[in-house]
Amino acid sequence: MVAHEIVPQSADDAADAVFASVEAALRFAFGNRHRGSPDTLARYLRSAMGGAPRFDDEIERAAWAGDIRRRADMLPPLSRWLLIAKFAPKAFPCACRRACCSGWRINEEWAEAISEIVSRTPEAVPATLLQRRLCQGVVKRWAGGDRVNIGLLADQCGVHRNTAGKQAKAITAWLSAGFTLAIERAHAAIRGEVP
Ligand SMILES: [Zn+2]
């Protein structure tokens, strides 16, 4: 079988790669709940020798997701959380049929990443007293999870709107810078370079 690359090294070999971009590879891996393991990939590679590999095959899906996840797991925690916050699904469809079920179940991995990032937000505005709820609103807004009105949130937290606005701006800039670095590291890790 052909040893496919996860993402293209250059525009010339795009056809040989499994995913068009690092972003696409991460979205796939974080959306695939099977965490996988190196063993899974090895088993897949062996089994694929006997037949034509099909990407819609469940074992193959799990193997690719596991391999990409293993590489993402090597990144520093903040980088990994920022990638999860942006690229992991916020919720998965739920078929439990309980009366209280909305048909969606929160993705715990995404919620955990948001919580960890919120805990690190004081790095964005040192020597400032921050309201965790405000920080959480800013992080969720950045991650695309919630439409958050910072002014209303500031009122609810008892923080002056101007202060909240400045803090939100600083936190968002910190998130963007951290995300840029995380993407660079993910490129290196997924291409097999040392992150
Ligand atoms: Zn349910």
Describe this protein with a few key phrases:
single chain; 195 residues; mainly alpha; two-stranded antiparallel ribbon; 8 helices; globular; binds zinc ion
Overview of the structural elements:
With 195 residues, this protein is mainly alpha-helical. It is built from eight helices and two strands, in the order ααααββαααα. It has helices spanning 22-31, 38-48, 58-72, 77-87, 108-120, 132-143, 150-157, 161-190, and strands at 91-93, 104-106. The protein has a two-stranded antiparallel ribbon. Helix 1 (22-31) packs across helix 3 (58-72), helix 4 crosses helix 5 and helix 7 (150-157) crosses helix 8. The longest helix has 30 residues, at 161-190. The radius of gyration is 20 Å and the shape is globular. The structure holds zinc ion.
Which sheet architecture does the biggest sheet show? 2 strands, antiparallel
- Give the strand line-up of the largest sheet: 1-2
Number of helices: 8
Low-confidence parts, pLDDT < 50 over ≥5 residues? 34-38, 48-54
Give the cofactors and ligands: zinc ion
Structural class: mainly alpha
**Level of helix content?**
55-70%
Measure the end-to-end span: 28 Å
Q: What percentage of the residues does DSSP assign to strands (E)?
A: under 5%
**SSE pattern:** HHHHEEHHHH
Please provide a brief summary of the model.
This protein is mainly alpha-helical and about 200 residues long. It has eight helices and two strands, in the order ααααββαααα.
